[in-house]
């Protein structure tokens, strides 16, 4: 893990993304000790890149006095007695020896030491690898002596060691001293272990005698090896990493401000900094350990116990003394957490300790000759079995210690109980201040302690009024998807599919400072730590307040406040703020800045905060509370992260940090707004269940506890600049620069403006910019609906156009969201011809497993492994088998399946992403963990950045569309084209070519421009000039042929091939034989199609120590017996085989298998079947289960069921037979009593799954369809289905093209979400869709979903009131599977055709509403809102969910965010949202518009819709011309913004199309009147009967009003100019409709000319409707894929009624009109028609031809022309000189509404052409927003998707 900044010789300087600070170690460690301290002359490693240099190896031994005395006497130096001199090896440059000796000697004198002599250590360079040799130092050894006072002498030696390390490198000299000690010496270097012994000749000298030998071998998994970084350090060597390092190091620096030492006095400062610069993690631990031993008054075992405590807080089995010790020790120092195995020695003691996570292996043997052999694996020594008396392992947090002075080997209990009783710590702990003591003092009872005060009421009476929510960046998403689940379930909700939203550094939606951070992972941990299941080791308890001097153990250390966890309740926080108990005092510091001070004000306020903190710390305050409580209208909050970071680091720098405790009263630590908001939700009856205060607090606290990474500073910033990092996050990385304080302040101020806008319009609601789930108008997402739909189509149909569109949208999304989107290629001036670039098949690019295998690439199964049907697929064309079988994450050398341990190197570099992934994780995990992989717009960029292997997951899943992957091979290779343009022939030549990339930030994103990509684009060759970076150019020899598996396979081949029944193999095994039997098992699985071999086919008898992953994936039929022991991961992925391990039969008789370890950690990980018998103790996670298991995951049950009892007993017998276990025999002998000791471990999740399965099995039994043999299956399309016919149907021309002919569509208009859907309000309705669906659904289910009986409910409320009851019964999670779409939503046609009332069966709709809402999946990418879906971006999934929950008011609030008139759209819209619904891919879409309509109708009925008169008027006057949907929407929005709005309508009533263009059956005019009255009450003036351009000139409007909005619709009807058009009785349908509507509404009109009673009309005696186009297909045509609007044959309500009355559908398709026929009196009497045929021409365009001989005359007494509209009335436009486009519509810029005339705007059909009501509303809203913005400079009216803030 990262280290502390500073130079470290041998490591490259920080360059590009590399920094020595990120160096990690993963290692092998071990020691040998003679427990009696007797000396004698009595090894392993990985290689560096040159195949011969080691990554580092070393040994620490006792001082070989005999040898040194001999050598130094040869130089004329007589060494004093042992212990009277100190010695150490140092690495220096050959030509700097003189300078070093001088400097060192000078310093020695300074500390009253005398240099006795120097020697150049004798080395054999031939043992040094090529790379290591380039940096090989001169190794000098020094001997010093000093005062007789041993303790003072040791201090002098330590001072010299430390001081010289600080000071000599400052002079520019290479100087690294491996140690300076009277007891130990370290030999190490950039070597491997075998080189070590040859390189240092001293080590092979027979006079080199030592009682201890601590050995280390380093694997630098992702780091540079160096001489200096080799282990051991001065006191220790380790395996693993220290994940808490940065936090530990910072606190250690802070501690320097409170430490003092009587023994060192002023000299103490010479030791500072305790943690030296440039240290690796182990170096840092070593520095502190050394310091605690040398200056802290602690012996080595105690010092190590202080730094590496057990998980003591939650351990129910720990003694009180030990707990007390650990608590005291926790006051002195925070834990240094691994995962790590630390081995340590000071010459007297030698031991090992495993950190509390315990994820590193550590095993030991004790032999008869009193030696202990400890190592990270068994089998590394050649101890003979008869000599071994004990085999053990270290448990987490446990210590192993040998005291060579006392000649004893001590186990953990003994050591620690000794240390725990050294001091009266229990008594000292009495001094601790606890929260309960404080509460008692302030008489805070339990209820009061968690009470949520009423302070929030000052911020409004309901949630919307609390403006603090938007000010702090709260969103409804955060509230609903993060906070509420935490309160309800005590844990975070899960999300999936990765994070595809823009990184905070690219987001223009004002992200929080938290969002700029990404969590880092432990690099060498396998398996990963699981904080949920391993809760026992996680504790959040911490001491707060001033820390005492650590160097003098005393009660002083306990005088701090002990917090069991960091989340404070409101009352606890208040108590701490105002306490004076026991002299404690608290300073409250406001972390806010004045809004009026602007963006610069924030940094000033931060600096002031730091100053005030310093003063308070100096003034003796024990607690500082940083509070943003005062934030509001005047003050904006400083991000708590910035505030606490700045203060924390400032206090560290000033060495004041440990004088005070820091408490944050903000969104963190005391998250007051969370508690207050939840309380408010409860008060508004929106919290279900309505938990009491205490539970709210406790649940939230519990949820937080799962996600807190305490004090570790294991985060990296992505996109913050140096200033921010230096001030607030010192020591944390931010490698690509980015925004600074000004930007962060501006983002804060924008949030503040949204919260406190002077005129609140749409900003009143808590916004949701769509950070987690995609939302129209919100944050871009890589997987946005357009990309997904295009990829889906490309994947399903192989449509190249779709793929091209996908590429385009994906690139655009990457530009908005990712770092790779900010890169571009540097193309060559001399591009290559494409033919010169290697073939696509050679290029490692592809999509899925099939495609990848075709071209030889590899795909990855993911962690769950692979399904058998895929695994076994041998189909050479459609082979879906993934070449990589992934088992677990984490990088660990030698652990990767087939890689032998001694050759653990990266063969491939894989650049991993954060924006994909399919797995489920907590939302904050998805959002906050892992760095983006930017470091392939694609594969090409990734390769250029260094990747040579590629894995895909999310994109393929999208292609599969959750159904079946059919075709994914796309015959395009953009990589080749790019390569040719860059002048690169071979793909492997791309690898690492960062010089061919350039930083090219999105020009529309000001934040992107602030990034600095120089680090990313730094060429690896700059750091290591001569390194070969050509991908795949260096082959690595894994010596696979030497694997033991191949020898087994040779002997077993005839059995595997079925030629022989059985084979018995006998062999020996060592720990180097890793993953034994995996290759064998793979071969068996391939040969036997995964069934394995018959039992006992291959019997393998082994002796020795099994290497890691022994018997991994062992196949059925293979029985392995190992006489010996084994390491970690035994039986990983066990797949039917049998493993038996027992101790060697020749162990000494005293050896008891039950007390000794037989196998390592993580046994049987991922095992699926088979048997395993281990005689001996197994790894940690198996021992003493009852006390240690996590009851949250599993239940412990007694063994009662007779089948369980029989199973266990027979298994025990088998165990005895196979291992000879005496314990098992004893149990069997005493079975009657012993059986009671067995517990059955049952995972809760497994139980739940079983219960569900049982329930479902019972439920589905009755319905379960009888499976039909495949050949007998009926066609899903019915008996007479003819697939050819279907094809023909699909081939028929579609309306779309022809419609374009008639009514051209402007494809360039970005607002056109759906090419004008022909049916408009009179056309498509859900009833048609439903009719189709109805035929499909099971009748039984229909009964359930739709009432056949007449509705019995009285009103809407009746349905809604039993929300809770219904909700409880409904299953939202699987609603879309369980419930059918309701279909019976219209009144009976026989009834409805007799009246003029609305056609809807409102009551039936209401009754099944929640069932319908439960079908909505709340999609992460909700297509219902996409470009093909709702033009308004209605937040459909959210209000569906709210309706499901019965939260109607909130559903209304969500609905009104995007739609002013849901009562109109809910009735008349053809619902493109339903056409685009994700469910529509393979089942009926979710019911949307009925729900929308019910929400608003219910709201009116409840009286929730009231006139809202603007509080403030701007004084601006605005005229709106036209009162149709767009005019009304514009007027409503502009009025809301405080403008005075006058609407001009030429007709006699308000409403335009809504009034006279839509029949009352579809939209009751009372509904229109209701809205108009409301708008009038809100202050809008309606001027009816005034035709602008005629009654009032447009130019007058321009003069009289500040702005004019033209919204007069598209009213110019298309005519049919054929002979006879002038005859009487031929009318435009719209005129007919208008007059009838007028008549119905009471106008006194004579319509004799239109009266067609008893005549043949195209409405009375007979009705016929002509359609020139062919009928649409019954299902979607190939060219009409989901999610486009479905152009399928529908039966609308009108057709239905005609059919009912006249017995036939009135429509005739494929018919053209030639002539109107005259009755001789100038009146129409019929139409001459002909049939038409549609064919495609050579270019693929549709052509219409008359069918010869098809002429026919239809009688008609009246003809209505309904052929659409051509555009707006021209007169007003001409009068106002407004520019029009070629189609005659008002011309505006793209996405703008301003016309060519200043202050004149246009909206709706007059601008975009004939369209839908929903589009018109959207236009009106957006035009209003632009008008407001232009007039006022700012607007709080909502933009697209209802989102107020819209980045420009
Ligand atoms: S309505 Fe359909 S697309 Fe929209 S969220 Fe629900 S299921 Fe998804």
TrEMBL record:
Residues 1254-1348 are annotated as: Disordered. Belongs to the glutamate synthase family. PROSITE patterns: GATASE_TYPE_2. Keywords: 3Fe-4S, Amino-acid biosynthesis, FAD, Flavoprotein, FMN, Glutamate biosynthesis, Glutamine amidotransferase, Iron, Iron-sulfur, Metal-binding, Oxidoreductase. Pathway: Amino-acid biosynthesis; L-glutamate biosynthesis via GLT pathway; L-glutamate from 2-oxoglutarate and L-glutamine (NAD(+) route): step 1/1; Energy metabolism; nitrogen metabolism; Nitrogen metabolism. This is glutamate synthase (NADH). It comes from the Eukaryota. Residues 1279-1291, 1328-1348 have a biased composition (Basic and acidic residues). It is an enzyme of class 1 (oxidoreductase). It catalyses: 2 L-glutamate + NAD(+) = L-glutamine + 2-oxoglutarate + NADH + H(+). Residues 27-405 form the Glutamine amidotransferase type-2 domain. It holds the Pfam family Fer4_20. Its cofactor is FAD; [3Fe-4S] cluster; FMN. Its EC number is 1.4.1.14. CDD domains: GltS (cd00713).
